[in-house]
Design a protein that fits this description.
- By secondary structure, this protein is mostly helical.
- The chain folds into two domains: 36-99 and 133-190, no CATH class; 194-346.
- It contains eleven helices and no strands.
- The longest helix has 51 residues, at 68-118.
- It is globular and about 80 Å long.
Length: 372
């Protein structure tokens, strides 16, 4: 049956695109719904893919001189020893400087209170006001202690789920590193022959982007942490090593992670060495962030992850609204993978001209059309 000629062409076109858009939205909503139902499995698999992408070069290096299975175990052991050594160093640093920092932090709080009470600010906050806020906070805690305890008991299950997710991630990582190519080939062989090439191209593009993002993020985070640690150590800021680790962790959370780490480092510097050092720390870590964005990101990531900053900001915001910190972490690599697959599979038309007519040119063309 043909089209009804009484329906305008623009309406038929709009209707066609509308139902296609609705189908895409429904498919995306279905994916999010299914992911929410098995969130623990999604987290575990995502973490396994990240670890696999980071450790795959190490595994390939070991596999040159030993069987693949043994190389996988040695790569995981190397990663475990690295993080264990890092954690031991941080704990020893905190234990050695904690008492000193506590006293300096108390002095810093007194300086802040004195500035708020006697400084040039139009609002005056006295020590009695702070004591009143603390008393109100203690009263609120005593009134809601039962609710907090019940929430803490409920969170015990979340802790167990966290350990389960880590165990599943390690289990999957072992197989991804040892037999990843065989698993992918098996999956492709389950598809119709006419679809295998498209899936192979899409999977290759997606893995290239995801692994590049994961490895690049780890390299950039390590560089940020090392630079921040050296910078804080030169300034003599206490707990330089733990703060450097905090900067390292913050680099994994796009947009919001680095500023939070900078604020915490500045607060510690303020408590220990005063306002001038805190200001220097803030400026220094901000410069490290600029070095990361303008030098490290293009150099390390290259063409593997090419997303506009606006897309990154929107992705992180949407991910945070949907799944909190987890959504902020996974949103950028998922969007990058989706865009990479789309660019590999699409049939791109020739680009249009960059010249955009001005309002004067549009008005002149419209006037000429009426005259004709």
């Amino acid at each position: 049956m043909g089209y009804d000629e009484t329906v305008p062409a623009w309406l038929r076109t709009t209707a066609g695109w509308s139902w296609r858009l609705l189908m895409v939205v429904a498919a995306v909503a279905l994916v999010f719904y299914a992911t929410a139902q098995v969130q623990l499995v999604f987290i575990a698999v995502f973490l396994a893919l990240v670890i696999s992408s980071v450790l795959r070069p190490v595994t390939d290096f070991y596999a040159r001189v030993m069987p693949r299975g043994l190389a996988t175990g040695l790569a995981l052991l190397t990663a475990l020893l690295f993080f264990a050594g890092l954690l031991t160093y941080v704990i020893s640093s905190v234990a050695g400087q904690w008492e000193k920092l506590a006293g300096e932090f108390t002095d810093g709080i007194d300086q802040i209170l004195d500035f708020l009470e006697n400084g040039p600010l139009p609002v005056s906050i006295t020590a009695d006001d702070v004591d009143g806020w603390i008393a109100n906070g203690q009263e609120w805690l005593s009134e809601h202690g039962g609710d907090i305890a019940s929430q803490a008991a409920a969170s015990a299950g979340s802790v167990f789920e966290g350990f389960a997710a880590i165990a599943l991630a390690i289990f999957c990582t072992v197989f991804f590193l040892a037999r990843g190519k065989d698993m992918w080939t098996w999956f492709l062989n389950q598809l119709p022959a006419r679809s295998r090439e498209s899936w192979k191209v899409a999977g290759g593009a997606g893995w290239f982007t995801f692994s590049g993002y994961a490895r690049g993020t780890v390299i950039i985070a390590l560089t940020d942490g090392i630079l921040a640690g050296i910078f804080l150590a030169i300034l003599g800021v206490p707990l330089a090593a733990p703060l450097a680790v905090l900067v390292f962790i913050g680099a994994f959370i796009p947009i919001i992670g680095a500023p939070l780490a900078m604020i915490i480092a500045a607060v510690v510097a303020l408590a220990a060495d005063g306002f001038v050092t805190a200001l220097i720390v803030t400026v220094g870590i901000a410069l490290i962030g600029q070095f990361e964005g303008h030098v490290l990101q293009p150099l390390v990531m290259g063409s593997q992850v090419s997303l506009h900053p606006v897309v990154v900001a929107i992705s992180v915001t949407a991910g945070t609204l949907l799944a909190g910190i987890l959504g902020a972490v996974v949103s950028v690599p998922l969007v990058a993978v989706a865009w990479s697959i789309f660019t590999r599979l699409r049939h791109k038309d020739p680009p249009m001209d960059d010249d955009v007519p001005t309002a004067k040119e549009i008005a002149l063309a419209s006037r000429q059309g009426r005259d004709d």
